[in-house]
Amino acid sequence: MNNPGEEPRDAFATGASRMCRRAWWVFLIGGIASVAFGILAFVNPGVALLVLAMVFAAFILVDGAANIWGALQNRGRDGWVAVLIFGALGVLVGAYALTAPPVSMLALIYVIAFFALTTGLISLYLGWQIRKEISNEWILYVSGALSVLFALLVLFRPGIGGVAIVYMIATWAIIVGLLRIMFAFFIRRVGRELDA
Question: Which of 27, 30, 22, 180 is nearest to 94 (CA)?
Fold first, then answer.
């Protein structure tokens, strides 16, 4: 949290917080894609596993590409490497799932759990990186913690029924997506206030 006498412009002038503020749309796109995926899964939980895998792969691919673009636009700032790795991972996992979709439900479950675990840890790391410069880093902490908990639950209970696992995935996607949208609009608002 900032000191009482510290100017907001000084707090946002350096580090990962400035990178986040300039690339707010990365969090927004990823959040919207996540929520859309979650809603689709809730509306049609009986959809074939292959279709669900393809939709999820497309979400990961779009989110990963957006993160890569945002990271490259902010090269040299604290945290940009974490966002770049996050994006590259998303593109690789999404591309793999699109070109060679999992042949079994168990394979899809482990792909989703691995992605959730990795993105959760990166979100926690990014929140820690910006903790001294942005007071609302708790959104990243909550988003990251939920992703890690979701991944661990899936990994320890891989035999959960088909519809149940779809609902679990959908719930995780919607909650994390909404948190990312909240964070995007928060840093966008702060950026506009500083520009004004």
Answer: 30
Whole-number Å distance between alpha carbons of 122 and 20? 14
Give the integer Cα–Cα distance in Å for 94 and 61: 5
pLDDT of residue 145: 86
Chain-wide mean pLDDT for the chain?
74
C-alpha to C-alpha distance for 48 and 153, rounded to whole angstroms: 23
Residue 67 pLDDT exceeds 50: yes
DSSP state of 7: -
Of 6, 51, 5, 11, whose CA–CA distance to 137 is shortest? 11
In the structure encoding, which two tokens stand for residue 39, read together?
Answer: 């809603």
Q: Do 112 and 68 touch, CB atoms closer than 8 A?
A: no
Can you give the pTM of this predicted structure? 0.56
Distance CA 140, CA 126 (A): 7
Share of the chain above pLDDT 90, in %: 0
Identity of residue 109: I
